[in-house]
Design brief:
Length: 178
């Protein structure tokens, strides 16, 4: 169960996101929500936080475990698991559309169709955003002032039409970061 689901189990789902404490930025550093450690990478702060808890008599216990841990495949730095805001597609609400359309697909071999249909029937909500920078931009622009003010671009012609300059000079550069 992820952080959001744990909170949402006790609060209305719409209120749950207001209760999440997200004090780490995209670079793995503490934010203003943790002023004593602001700007310090999470892993670099561990020893100081443990020492502080011990000095204040708040440390319940401390133990080290040997276990595998996820690392970036490119630079081998440890990854941080944290709750993030994301967009989801409610797969089960789409099954009236997806299942009949799956019947129209020509699978080779044909036996794959049954597995694919079973996946569609039991598919959980799909995390559309994934909050990664892999060069596959999600064509959605949302106002910072009003999240209901949103534009979803369906194709390149729409993008040209909605651009402020009308320029067809779309960059070929893709920026990738992790």
């Amino acid at each position: 169960m992820d952080d959001f689901e744990a909170v949402a189990a006790f609060l209305p789902r719409e209120d749950a996101k207001n209760w999440l404490f997200l004090p780490v930025d995209d670079y793995g550093e503490f934010t203003n929500e943790v002023p004593d450690y602001k700007g310090i990478r999470v892993y670099e702060a561990n020893k100081d936080i443990i020492a502080r808890l011990k000095n204040e008599g708040k440390l319940i216990g401390q133990k080290s475990y040997n276990h595998s841990y996820p690392h970036c495949r490119r630079c081998d730095t440890p990854l941080i698991s944290k709750a993030l805001t994301s967009w989801f597609i409610k797969e089960q609400q789409l099954s009236d559309i997806t299942l009949p359309n799956a019947e129209k697909i020509g699978f080779v071999p044909e036996t794959v169709k049954n597995r694919f249909r079973d996946v569609l029937k039991s598919a959980p909500d799909w995390n559309l955003a994934r909050n990664r920078y892999w060069g596959s931009a999600i064509p959605v622009w949302e106002s910072e002032d009003n999240q209901e003010d949103r534009i979803v671009i369906g194709n390149i012609d729409e993008l040209y039409h909605l651009s402020t300059t009308g320029s067809k000079n779309i960059t070929k550069n893709i920026f990738i970061r992790h």
